[in-house]
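Workshop exercise sheet. Pairs work together: one partner reads the sequence aloud, the other fills in the structure field after running the prediction. Swap roles for the next sheet.
Pair: D.N. / O.F.
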Amino acid sequence: MVSPMANTLNQRAPNQQAPAPGRPALMAIEVVGLTKRFGPTMAVQDLSFSVAYGRIVGFLGPNGAGKTTALRALLGLLRPTAGAARVAGYRYRDLPDPAGTVGAALDGGACHPGRSGRQHLRALARAAGVDEGRVEDLLGLVGLEAAADRRAGGYSLGMRQRLGLAVTLVGDPGILVLDEPANGLDPEGIRWLRGLLRSLAAEGRAVLVFESRAGPGVPDGR
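Structure field:
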């Protein structure tokens, strides 16, 4: 089930392109007729949805419903059997500036356990051609300043989730794809996450949240 959770706002995301006069606004994410079959198993069948800039959309479903398959197809990690998935009008592999267009973290933003959170973000910033000064801003945004120099292997699940959120924002993208971002967060962390997602949408970013249920990671728009 795909549930829009917030109203479209007028602000544009940092890397969103304004539509040409007389043309409709470009959808941040558009999935049309997406189907993926693994041998005899139908993982996703004829899935269609879109996400506009300035919206938070929850992609909800129980384990085994095909969420991970849809997520991987959207990010170009597997080829669909039929249909198409586009980000900012492109297939993911054709994006001219992937890091500056879409931010995504799978597996809680997996990080080498021997690296610190700061080292991990700095390496990603260098790879994306982003000023490393942004790393300090992101550590503050996700509340990891005090743990920034600790080895990520010693992070709690909630801390790894916060690091994963920072990873998605390294390139200052206009589109975020989050896989169960509330998993492992305590009640205070969940309140923080909901506020953060609302603020990101208010900046004009598109936020797609994959959840196993209508859980605390998806703001209700109120």
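Discussion prompt: The chain has one domain: 2-211. What would you look at next?
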